[in-house]
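In the current project phase, we have settled on a layout for protein records. A sample record is reproduced below.
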Amino acid sequence: MTMEYIRERSCDFTNYPKLYEKTPWGYYNKIREVERPSEIIIGSNRNNVAESYKLKKVFSRISKKLKNQTEILFNGEDIRDHIEYYKTSDDKIVTIFSADGINDEKCKLIIEQGYIPVEPLYSFLQKSYLKVI
């Protein structure tokens, strides 16, 4: 018996595929039989963020000023990975990121910069953070 693998975009595991389809996480194709359980949970986490913060639009490009305002430098390098920016229904900006290797020192720095930890939004192997601007 041959198993058929069906590829789906990660954004299709949310209630908001149009919101997430242009993000690095959202347009990534997954093999349903292998990766579906984690994508369902991460999709649910993303639904919660979209609803809690009333996200309405993802930014495909951002200004240098906004980038500088949200970066977190550790030894001269931005420690964020998989960075996303959204506009809310009340015209605020929400930025989220996920990253590997977040030790206590980096976590303290992230919190000091106004980010809050959130449920995984990219991978269970990375920590995710959110900031409202």
Strands lie at 7-9, 29-31, 55-58, 73-74, 77-78, 81-88, 93-99, 116-118, 127-132.
